[in-house]
User: Which sequence fits this backbone?
């Protein structure tokens, strides 16, 4: 039980970092979006960053939900099969696809930028999928700790 | 490698990664905006406020030519108005006001309160000359001076009156510089009221060494000149309007003041957005206190942009012109651009060459709004620098003109018309009408010539990235 | 600690098998060197064969861990790969053993029956005791056995005993040496062989140097099973109805001949409700009496003897005074974990080790071994994180390790098969509340038991493996998770042993 709490706290802390990045990108007094010359296609810079913040939070929320869903399945739903099935990685990939879909939604439904539009786009994809990957690599339940690709090289606990 | 070393290595990898991210973020930070010498607020950004307490001096022309205004009757708009002027001054909205009546002719004599009924007495109007200088000697520019006169003046008198008014009330900006202005703007208002007249009309020029005059039985305008602080003058005129609702069709009014706007806009709407740059709200130093006169722009470099995607800005600001009664030719509005670049000590320094970077393409006055169309030439700005621009919109000298209806105020009497016409009186000729026009033009010129009173000032803080 | 176990006869072999399983569970003292000698005339005895097979599988497993963990921590050694027999193929009858001497022939005819012509209906007369084929055992006739032992057992010329004596003499100089003899007291081989061998050992070693650092223990099994007709009418066979009488006689014999005086400890084991053997047989491979829980009790007695401090088991400063240990259970028709005979101080620990071995055997057999095989062949090691942690990181799993894994799996199957029988009630109304056999066992049509298939196991799951131990319930998922979360100790074992160690510790 203690381990579960620690892992869930770890996930929350990681997503707090994600929120911190969103803050740095769009909310702080010197937003990185502004510093990196992300110019909106319409509206003022403040309006653009406000919309970006909303969509980034949506992507973050979807990524967090995907992470927690994966965690819940791995912790409480999955059962050891004999022989062990490969399907768990497919399920992990499915939730990754959900975060990527959220990023696509943010790109196409969120505010558009006329200059340096690749920066918010990359942020949506790398943030949503990246934090999902990091969270699952670091905090997946031990029975499935190496299901995320590359986890065996990155996870040391 | 044992487990402990593996763990240490993984921690080290993670640390290096986070440090790299931190360095990347930190390296992208730009320098703090320049923090110094922010343009002061123009005094005209403050709304016109009437004085708390005012001294009102009412000067009544006691020359003989005024006697004809005592005609009485239903079209009498002389006595009912004149007799109320003191009351208007007293209840004009000032906290305290001290009103004095003065009779002027050869001299200026105060009329005690108990004697004020004498204004009805034709004997009151017995002065043969009017020394306008006496009026100015007795009045203070901070006081509200009201002169009731028929404005029958010779050219010399016109020159004298207009020069005195110019010196005391209208020179202001010309003396302090075109950009500067007195904290309290003086104004001169000319209110002509047409009333029943039975009497002689003078000042029609000399004939045979004698001054011509005719008997006129009809209507004739008399004039109330009001001069003093603009807000108080406006307040006085407003009280007259409130007191005498039906006076409007029978009046002509012009107000001369070098301040053309009620208030200079303190807030700018940056207007429609153009592709290629963004309006921001946090580029300026915090010490500027969020100055809403400033349009903050972040303008990236031109790489990747199409040539036709111009950096066009269309700010919109409020522009409530004072109801002066003058005609404004919008095409005569001009804009002056001043550019500043960062200096050595962190403050902005003027840069004459920068004015070309911001091109004013059009100025439109739409109702109570001033709409500008500006084009920012990004290629004249250096990347990584902040710039400051001031765009000042002002009317040219000839932008404001006295309406013809005021200049050529026709006399109701056909006889006077015919007389004037027979004598070949024209706007270029000598005559009362001419003198009125000359007088008013003199006042207009004194008010606007050599001056560039702003009707809108917009600042741009541009960050070239 | 040097321990010896001399298992005489079929019952001795079954008790030795149970002792080996306890050794695998880590219940014997640590460190411990256990040398086992099987003694039986009936080389083809099924129980003996099974015991030797278990011993060989144990040895294969010990080689992986070499005593580094409690699993297989006793260093087991087989003194002979085949059982030692007092008779040979060329001398397999009493007549041939005692030779052509007429005097002896006469004496033997007085003592033993000759070919008996009295059975009617037989085309040929059935052989008597003098012509009995002794390679199928002594048929529960201790008299036959005694005569054979007396004739053939020569300390100096019997190779294993010569080596045994020399070994013990060498080892006792630095360590305490304990020798346990076990066998049935109601049978033929055990009843006759055990006291004979014990006397010889005592005379050869026990008398030397005042018996210092040397203790002998005896575990004679009293009647605890029975069976029906073996199906060979007229032939000389072991008669279950005579077991009690034989037992009484044997005990009487021991007492009168002073055998009890030189044992440090005697552990008597029997059962008021004897188990009914399913398929009785005369001997050889047909005589595969299934393991019974009584042998587990006996093995725990042997473990107790080995654990006892020198002199504590019964001696007093080297002078044997003889202690009698009796085992009993609380309920006549029920055997529970609390009924297992262990010292109070170690009861819980030993119980847990036994259960740990059981859980390990089930988990390995049905989950971990198939997983390792699947990953080894098909890849996708991420499916089993422990595989990566223990078999891929700084380690290797190749064909050689695969064979090692197979050895451990075979042992686990042996253990489970033994457990199936041990926990099966062979008496009407009797209940063994140790393991729930339904987790890993199914009954065939002929009432024989077999290990459950993978599908059958999948349906039952691991959680209910132990009866009356709710607090120790653990599912396969729990064990899997623990194995994934386990870190190898330092220094880690190599090869598949590293993974097995982790899996074992997770059980």
Assistant:
């Amino acid at each position: 039980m203690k381990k579960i709490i620690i892992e869930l706290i770890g996930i929350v802390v990681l997503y707090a970092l994600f929120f911190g990045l969103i803050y740095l990108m769009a909310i702080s007094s010197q937003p990185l979006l502004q510093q990196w010359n992300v110019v909106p296609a319409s509206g003022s810079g403040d309006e653009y960053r406000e919309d970006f913040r909303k969509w980034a939070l949506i992507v973050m929320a979807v990524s967090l939900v995907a992470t927690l869903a994966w965690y819940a399945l791995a912790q409480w739903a999955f059962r050891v099969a004999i022989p062990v099935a490969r399907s768990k990685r497919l399920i992990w990939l499915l939730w990754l696809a959900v975060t990527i879909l959220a990023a696509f939604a943010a790109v196409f439904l969120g505010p558009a930028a006329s200059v340096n539009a690749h920066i918010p786009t990359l942020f949506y994809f790398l943030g949503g999928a990246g934090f999902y990957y990091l969270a699952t690599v670091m905090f997946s339940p031990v029975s499935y700790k190496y299901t995320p690709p590359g986890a065996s090289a990155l996870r040391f606990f | 490698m044992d487990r402990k070393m593996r763990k240490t290595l993984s921690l080290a990898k993670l640390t290096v990664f986070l440090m790299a991210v931190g360095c990347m973020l930190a390296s992208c930070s730009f320098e703090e905006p320049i923090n110094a010498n922010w343009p002061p607020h123009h005094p005209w950004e403050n709304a016109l406020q009437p004085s708390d307490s005012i001294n009102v001096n009412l000067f009544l022309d006691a020359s003989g030519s005024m006697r004809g205004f005592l005609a009485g009757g239903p079209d009498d708009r002389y006595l009912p108005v004149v007799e109320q002027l003191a009351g208007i001054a007293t209840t004009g909205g000032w906290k305290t006001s001290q009103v004095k009546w003065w009779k002027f002719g050869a001299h200026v004599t105060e009329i005690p309160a108990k004697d004020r009924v004498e204004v009805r007495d034709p004997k009151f109007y017995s002065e043969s000359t009017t020394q306008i200088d006496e009026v100015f000697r007795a009045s203070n520019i901070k006081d509200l001076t009201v002169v009731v006169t028929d404005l029958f003046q010779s050219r010399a008198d016109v020159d004298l009156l207009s020069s005195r008014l110019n010196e005391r009330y209208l020179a202001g900006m010309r003396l302090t510089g075109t950009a500067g202005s007195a904290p309290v703007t003086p104004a001169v208002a000319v209110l002509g009221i047409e009333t029943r007249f039975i009497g002689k009309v003078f000042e029609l020029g000399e004939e045979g060494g004698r001054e011509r005059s005719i008997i006129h039985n009809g209507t004739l305008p008399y004039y109330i000149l009001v001069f003093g602080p603009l807000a108080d003058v406006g307040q006085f005129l407003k009280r007259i309007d409130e007191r005498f609702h039906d006076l409007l069709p029978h009046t002509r009014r012009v107000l001369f003041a070098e301040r053309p706007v009620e208030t200079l806009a303190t807030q700018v709407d940056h207007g429609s957005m153009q592709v290629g740059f963004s309006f921001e709200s946090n580029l300026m130093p915090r010490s500027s206190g969020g100055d809403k006169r400033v349009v903050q722009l972040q303008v990236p470099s031109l790489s990747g942009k199409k040539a036709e995607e111009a950096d066009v800005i269309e700010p919109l600001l409020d522009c409530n012109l004072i109801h002066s009664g003058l005609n404004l030719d919008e095409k005569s509005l001009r804009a002056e651009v001043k550019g500043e670049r960062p200096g050595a000590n962190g403050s902005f320094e003027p840069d004459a060459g920068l004015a070309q970077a911001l091109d004013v393409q059009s100025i439109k006055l739409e109702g109570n709004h001033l709409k500008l169309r500006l084009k920012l030439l990004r290629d004249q700005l250096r990347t990584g620098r902040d710039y400051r621009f001031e765009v000042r919109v002002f009317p040219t000298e000839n932008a404001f003109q006295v309406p013809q209806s005021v200049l050529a105020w026709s006399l109701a009497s056909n006889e006077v018309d015919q007389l004037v016409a027979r004598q070949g009186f024209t706007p270029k000729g000598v005559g009362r009408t001419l003198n009125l026009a000359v007088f008013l033009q003199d006042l207009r010129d004194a008010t606007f010539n050599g001056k560039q009173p702003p009707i809108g000032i917009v600042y741009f803080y541009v960050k070239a990235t | 600690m040097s321990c010896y176990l001399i298992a005489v006869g079929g019952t001795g072999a079954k008790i030795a098998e149970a002792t080996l399983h306890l050794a695998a569970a880590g219940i014997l003292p640590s460190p411990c060197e256990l040398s086992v000698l099987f003694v039986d005339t009936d080389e083809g005895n099924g129980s003996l064969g099974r015991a030797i097979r278990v011993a060989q599988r144990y040895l294969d497993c010990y080689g992986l861990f070499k005593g580094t963990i409690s699993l297989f921590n006793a260093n087991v050694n087989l003194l002979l790969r085949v059982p030692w027999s007092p008779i040979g193929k060329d001398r397999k009858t009493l007549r041939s053993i005692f030779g052509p001497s007429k005097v002896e022939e006469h004496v033997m005819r007085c003592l033993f029956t000759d070919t008996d012509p009295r059975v009617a209906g037989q085309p040929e007369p059935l052989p008597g005791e003098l012509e009995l084929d002794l390679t199928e055992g002594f048929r529960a006739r201790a008299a036959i056995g005694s005569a054979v032992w007396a004739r053939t057992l020569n300390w100096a010329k019997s190779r294993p005993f010569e080596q045994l004596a020399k070994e013990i003499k060498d080892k006792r100089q630095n360590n305490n040496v304990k020798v346990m003899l076990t066998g049935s007291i109601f049978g033929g081989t055990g009843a006759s062989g055990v006291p004979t061998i014990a006397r010889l050992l005592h005379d050869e070693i026990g008398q030397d140097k005042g018996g210092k650092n040397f203790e002998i223990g005896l575990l004679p099994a009293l009647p605890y099973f029975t069976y029906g007709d073996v199906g060979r009418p007229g032939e000389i066979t072991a008669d279950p109805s005579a077991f009690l009488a034989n037992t009484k006689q044997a005990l009487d014999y021991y007492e009168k001949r002073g055998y009890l005086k030189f044992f440090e400890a005697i552990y008597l084991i029997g059962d008021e409700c004897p188990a009914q053997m399913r398929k009785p047989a005369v001997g050889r491979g047909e005589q595969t009496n299934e393991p019974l829980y009584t042998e587990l009790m006996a093995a725990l007695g042997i473990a107790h003897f080995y654990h006892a401090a020198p002199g504590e088991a019964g001696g007093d400063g080297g002078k044997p005074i003889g202690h009698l240990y009796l085992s009993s259970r609380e309920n006549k028709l029920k055997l529970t974990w609390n009924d297992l005979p262990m010292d109070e101080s170690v009861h819980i620990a030993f119980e847990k080790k036994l259960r740990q071995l059981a859980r390990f055997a089930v988990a390995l057999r049905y989950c971990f071994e198939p997983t390792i095989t699947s990953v080894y062949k098909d890849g996708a090691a991420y499916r089993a994180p422990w595989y990566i942690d223990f078999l891929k990181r700084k380690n290797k799993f190749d064909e050689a390790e695969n064979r090692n894994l197979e050895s451990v799996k075979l042992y686990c199957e042996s253990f489970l098969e033994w457990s199936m029988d041990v926990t099966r009630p062979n008496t009407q109304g009797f209940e063994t509340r140790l393991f729930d056999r339904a987790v890993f066992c199914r009954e065939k049509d002929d009432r024989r038991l077999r290990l459950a298939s993978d599908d059958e196991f999948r349906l039952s799951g691991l959680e209910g493996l132990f009866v009356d131990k709710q607090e120790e319930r653990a599912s396969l998922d729990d064990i899997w998770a623990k194995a994934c979360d386990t870190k190898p100790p330092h220094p880690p074992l190599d090869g598949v042993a590293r993974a097995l160690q982790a899996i074992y510790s997770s059980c």
